[in-house]
């Protein structure tokens, strides 16, 4: 007899054994599918009218996105413009469920005109050299220049080989 049966006086009922096995045998994919269905029903009970926005549990997102406020309803409720993916969710929320949006001016993209080629590509041109450095590898010294490119900020400057930059863009030196 199995240790579980000796201890508790009955047979162990694991998820694999939750089906009546008298009179028939399940083999291969059928038993796996039946077990998966039963395990899913037990682990994921039906929700009673509650709609969750994303992953449930510890790692669920606290706020799900930015939505426009359409109108104020009463003292503490607001009607929001929700996307079609949230059509099953009621569009009126209590103020405690909302968070004020604080815009970050660093995220605003400044658009400037640039010439597009026929294949919708454009040529990056350097504006200026921001910094110089020499990388030492054993017996060799490799000079690099930090280049700011057109349509990019100085923060987005890249390190390039000085020899390549002198070759292509000699006017910078």
From TrEMBL:
InterPro entries: SH3_Tf2-1. It comes from the Eukaryota. Residues 53-101 form the Tf2-1-like SH3-like domain. Pfam families: SH3_Tf2-1 (PF24626). PANTHER family: CHROMO DOMAIN-CONTAINING PROTEIN, OS12G0499874 PROTEIN. This is Uncharacterized protein LOC120270278.
């Amino acid at each position: 007899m199995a240790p579980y049966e000796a201890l508790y006086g009955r047979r162990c009922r694991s998820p694999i054994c939750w089906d009546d096995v008298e009179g028939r045998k399940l083999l291969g994919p059928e038993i796996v599918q039946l077990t998966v269905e039963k395990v899913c029903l037990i682990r994921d009970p039906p929700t009673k009218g509650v709609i969750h926005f994303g992953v449930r549990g510890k790692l669920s997102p606290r706020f799900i996105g930015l939505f426009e406020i359409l109108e104020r309803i009463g003292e503490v409720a607001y009607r929001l413009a929700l996307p079609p993916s949230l059509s099953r969710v009621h569009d009126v929320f209590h103020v405690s469920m909302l968070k004020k949006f604080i815009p970050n001016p660093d995220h605003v993209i400044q658009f400037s005109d640039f010439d597009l080629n026929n294949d919708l590509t454009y040529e990056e041109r350097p504006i200026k050299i921001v910094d110089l450095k020499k990388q030492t590898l054993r017996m060799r010294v490799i000079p690099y220049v930090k280049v700011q490119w057109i349509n990019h900020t100085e923060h987005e400057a890249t390190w390039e080989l000085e020899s390549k930059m002198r070759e292509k863009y000699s006017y910078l030196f």
